[in-house]
Design a protein that fits this description.
Number of strands of chain A: 17
Number of helices of chain A: 16
Largest interface: A-B, 81 and 80 residues
CATH superfamily of the largest domain in chain A: Metal-dependent hydrolases
Helix content of chain A: 25-40%
Distance between the termini of chain A: 69 Å
Oligomer: homodimer
Strand content of chain A: 15-25%
């Protein structure tokens, strides 16, 4: 008599599984057993079929199963401004396009519809978690929750008034209320998201530093994005922004410093020693000509580097496969070393390293027992995917996001054969078209409209 | 009584047509009338329907029609080595991977199967013409011809023996025989493709210079790819490679100089003045850490810059949408100017500028009367394409190659709803799998095989 099988919700099997942890491991003919949204086992398929009785069994053949990607820096709602002002200098871009548009349009409805569009695009591209910084974060949190997407939602703080809040203390208190709301949520977490050193006072930054230490919460902030930022800080504060953050108690393992295109050799050592995470957005940095982050030098100094797309206004997509590729390619060009930021490093930056930096190291970022079943299936039986010689190289240098066919977050299937299961793509497109018409009517300055 | 309609083969209409010429023009609700493979008219759809009686009428709604892209630098057959050795230094890559593999495998069958795979991938990505440099070019020409693809096939010349030829004169005579074969072919043209200054003697280069001048044929050559190349030339010849080419009579409007990552300010002026075309391969240059081509400075000096992917072994795809995007982004980063190499410039580099550099300015590269109907349709009614504010920006910064749904070359539909019409994708995949197994068995050094 054969032993009784264990009843579980879902079993996914594939010829190839890339669990990310253990590092560099590729599992062949393995299965992932999922129950209550959690990975309960990772084992050879043959054994899995004998051991488990799954309500739903999905058998992948020419696919790679891997953990969902983590987009570590987004302003999701800005999806409605996709490519609204390309090829213009940074200050023109901000002063004459982005800021007037945000001032006019960035209300609750904008954040709702924009977040929905962004999450739809991210899911369709294999991203299962994003780290967001934008106004009305409670709306982005709600939309993510409704769509089943994992999100880290920023408690945004900035000194100037917007439609969301009027002064730093109001931002902060609204943020902390959000933190309380989502404290025990399985999908949504909240972290601090002070905009940047140059838009925040010493007082506010000190306050954030204090609460972040008390709660042991990450702080997600734009830092050293441009040379101008350094120049201004030296004039105003007599020190470079990183030194100012150090003085204010923020240079510690909770800091996720976004961009970091301007770094001296000393600063590279400083942040590596302090355990700061560098949040690299290569395509945005290139498009806005902000500078180039010294990724290879940072990795050599043992600093943690993770990857984000930044917003649609400077990218113009939320494609983490493309962003990994650009990061891996650019690091080689910048360091003049073809071994820099290799495929494994890029993959870890977009999965486990990001999860750890965001305080989600036990939740997501790898296919391991006890972690949430945040898993994507990548289709490889197509002209663009053959031949392939190395799984990691294939994922970073040859995989288009359209090869992502299925996406699971916490065991729930959110994308099935490239179709969203928790939102209507048609509805999202209709709403996006309406915003396009509205915004075109307001800002007809640069656009070859259509 | 209404006037009699003119009978034509095909009419394509769309809400948006980007003809590329005239520059910066976007046509709304226009149609393209095609007969005998040639564009006979471009006019408002309403008028077109009254004027023409088309055997086949395709009405596009949420699509952009534009000329097919031109991949100006390929080694098509190397598709079979897609990503075979990523993240390794250039000399290791060449000496321990690419060259041993080519020495062992690059025969007629390899070139046949590899060219087929490459052309399939290019067509599915909206590329309608490629400029190739590889051994057995007669086979690539034949495969392109069979699949209906436009190709510029290089008369490759190199001083060392391969399976294709044993010495420079043999390469040259085989090439010239190919030139004669395809002299009046509507799809295939041949140009010179001497490999690089460092693999060719003064004698051979002088010969090529002379015949190229006589026949007024372009010369497609790797030039100034790496700093090492410059150093070696200074040691061996006492001059930089560009100066050597100048001395040998090759610095003229027929030269298509590939890579050009190492350029002094004087050389930028020199090549602009000489009318040399710079053939930029940004992703390959980054991946091999060769250096960064000063695209913005070249454009400011009025030099022509066109774009190619290079081979699968250093890219690892033949995606011209991605390559345009990388070129436009990287140019901004390198020049620290967000206005550098804008979307219009990138699009022209991948269409009309490439056509002119390749001697095909009257054939392809734009949607104009009397030109060949080399046209692609890009689907825009999807999550990834909304909203969109500027057509050029959308094409360069937001369009994934999978949005290409239909492709026409010389009026013949080669891709229909993303399926090839002139080759079996399944057969190509099967052959690619076989090559993968063979090559994996030979070179198991780096691969996480699967």
């Amino acid at each position: 008599m054969s032993p009784k099988k264990i009843a579980i919700q879902t079993l996914l099997s594939s010829r190839i599984v890339v669990p990310i942890e253990p590092a560099d491991r590729v599992l062949t003919d393995h299965a992932i057993a999922i129950d209550n949204g959690v990975i309960v086992d990772v084992l050879p398929t043959e054994r899995a079929l004998k051991k488990y009785d799954a309500k739903s069994y999905v058998e992948y053949d020419d696919h790679i199963l891997m953990p969902g990607l983590i987009n570590a820096h987004t302003h999701a709602a800005m999806s409605l401004l996709r490519g609204v002002a390309s090829d213009v200098p940074l200050m023109d871009w901000l002063n004459n396009h982005i800021w007037p548009l945000e001032k006019t349009f960035a209300d609750e409805q904008f954040v709702h519809d924009g977040s929905q569009l962004a999450i739809a695009e991210m899911l369709r591209g294999g991203t299962t978690c994003f780290n967001d910084m934008y106004f009305f974060p409670e709306i982005t949190a709600r939309v993510a929750s409704q769509m089943g997407m994992r999100a880290v939602v920023g408690m945004i703080v900035i000194e100037f008034p917007t439609r969301y809040a009027t002064h730093a203390d109001e931002y902060l208190s609204k943020g902390l209320a959000l933190f309380d709301t989502y404290k025990n949520n399985p999908l949504i977490t909240t972290i601090f998201a002070p905009h940047a050193p140059y838009t925040l006072s010493d007082d506010t930054l000190t306050k954030i530093s204090r609460i972040s230490n008390e709660l042991d919460l990450p702080v997600h902030m734009h830092v050293h994005e441009t040379a101008q930022e350094i120049k201004d800080s030296l004039e105003l504060h007599g020190v470079r922004p990183l030194d100012r953050l150090d003085q204010l108690g923020l240079l510690n393992p909770n800091l996720l410093a976004v961009h970091m295109t301007q770094l001296t050799a000393e600063e590279i050592t400083q942040i590596a020693d302090a355990g700061v995470t560098v949040l690299h957005c290569p395509e945005s940095n290139l498009k806005l000509a902000s500078g180039m982050c010294p990724v290879h030098a940072l990795k050599q100094a043992k600093a943690r580097v993770i990857i984000g797309t930044d917003s649609h206004a400077s990218n113009d997509d939320l494609d983490m496969f493309s962003e990994m590729r650009t990061a891996a390619l650019l690091a080689k060009g910048v360091s003049q070393d073809a071994t820099a930021f290799n495929a494994q490093q890029a993959l870890r930056a977009a999965t486990i390293d990001a999860a750890r930096a965001l305080g989600l190291g036990n939740e997501t970022g790898s296919i391991e027992k006890h972690k949430s079943a945040d898993i994507i299936a990548i289709h490889c039986n197509n002209i663009e995917s053959y031949p392939h010689y190395d799984v990691f190289s294939h994922l970073v240098y040859s995989t288009d996001r359209q090869c992502v066919c299925d996406v699971f977050v916490a065991g729930r299937q959110l994308l099935k054969d490239r179709t969203l299961t928790t939102a209507s793509e048609d509805d999202i497109i209709i709403k996006s078209k309406q915003w396009q018409a509205t915004i075109n009517a307001f800002d007809a300055s640069t656009a070859t409209q259509w």
